[in-house]
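From the methods appendix. Each design record in this collection lists the tokenized structure first, followed by the designed amino acid sequence. Records were kept in a plain field format so they could be parsed without special tools. The example shown here is representative of the layout used throughout.

RECORD:
FOLD TOKENS (349 positions):
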């Protein structure tokens, strides 16, 4: 190949990313329609429950270019669906529009789709090319694929630490990251379906756990509070976002409190992740505290770590940051004086 397929697939990925935080539990998908090297239509899945990428792509074609559709190639970052969900099958739309060639980034592992869209297209006489920028297309939807293939949410662990490796003073929380970095964190929150903290963090920090400094949907708040010790006047009890309280099965949740009842005499995380999978929560951003983060690290139930190392605060002692292990370095970048380091897990769990 001369790189043409990769060029247009890269555009599909760019388009798909515009739907970050808005399409779950559906994947992010981009589509581009090309005639003789010219893009005549493009679109992406914008909001869950609304039109898919292929529909928006074909709807964007100018009236003058519509006669070219049966002579064009459509590029899609993910296999077109073949089943009726919130919207009709996109494979049927492609067949109806008589598009002769479909280039696909990666196959959809969701059981309702997996391979069925490709089979339907090929049965209609359409040429199908697969595996173009496959790894990049899978990475784009790492949350979606983890959820369906590992039967649990994609887990992102995040914390801020000083250069000395402390996340708090001995007396309580301290401000470590800058305001600009805080905005980035709120963008991260908007990209995940849920955000989680432990009891101590919820009590001492009284966090709002929303994305008020960034646009998009607010994540579901998951508060690990087995004995319901977090005061009812704390932010996690307000009505600005949905909150689930993870409590001991022997505790009765008061009226108005949505509880996830678990057996705290057994390993916690396998139970929790199974419930979250049942509730269709595809991703969780875990923001603390240190004990909860370390529990995810030690059990291996995590996929990505984002560590913010701040320059504006230094501590001589305090609460130590968690210690990652079994990980590979992903990237390091600077933002307003803070260092942001990303790690990815090695192996499966």
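DESIGN:
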């Amino acid at each position: 190949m001369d790189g043409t397929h990769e060029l247009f697939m890269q555009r599909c990925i760019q388009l798909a990313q515009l739907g970050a935080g808005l399409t779950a539990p559906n994947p992010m998908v981009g589509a581009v329609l090309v005639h003789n090297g010219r893009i005549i239509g493009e679109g992406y899945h914008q909001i869950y429950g609304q039109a898919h990428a292929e529909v928006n792509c074909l709807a964007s074609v100018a009236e003058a270019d519509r006669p070219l559709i049966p002579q064009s190639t459509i590029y899609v970052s993910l296999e077109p669906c073949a089943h009726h969900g919130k919207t009709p099958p996109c494979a049927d739309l492609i067949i109806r529009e008589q598009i002769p060639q479909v280039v696909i980034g990666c196959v959809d592992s969701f059981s309702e789709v997996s391979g069925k869209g490709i089979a339907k297209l090929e049965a209609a006489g359409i040429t199908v090319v697969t595996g173009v920028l496959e790894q990049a297309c899978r990475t784009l939807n790492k949350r979606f694929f983890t959820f369906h293939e590992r039967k649990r949410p994609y887990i992102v662990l995040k914390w801020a630490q000083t250069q000395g490796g402390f996340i708090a003073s001995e007396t309580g929380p301290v401000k470590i990251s800058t305001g600009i970095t805080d905005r980035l964190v709120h963008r991260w929150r908007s990209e995940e379906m849920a955000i989680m903290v432990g009891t101590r963090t919820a009590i001492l920090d009284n966090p709002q756990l929303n994305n008020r400094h960034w646009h998009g949907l607010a994540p579901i708040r998951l508060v690990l509070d087995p004995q319901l010790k977090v005061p009812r006047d704390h932010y996690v009890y307000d009505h600005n976002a949905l909150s689930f309280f993870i409590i001991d099965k022997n505790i009765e949740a008061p009226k108005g409190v949505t509880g996830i009842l678990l057996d705290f005499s057994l390993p916690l995380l396998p139970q929790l992740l199974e419930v979250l999978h049942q509730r269709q929560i595809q991703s969780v951003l875990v923001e603390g505290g240190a004990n909860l983060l370390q529990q995810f690290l030690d059990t291996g139930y995590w996929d990505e770590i984002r560590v913010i190392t701040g320059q504006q605060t230094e501590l001589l002692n305090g609460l130590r940051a968690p210690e990652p292990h079994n990980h590979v370095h992903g990237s390091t970048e600077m933002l307003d004086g803070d260092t942001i380091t990303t790690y990815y897990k090695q192996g499966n769990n």
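APPENDIX NOTE: The two ends are 36 Å apart (CA to CA).
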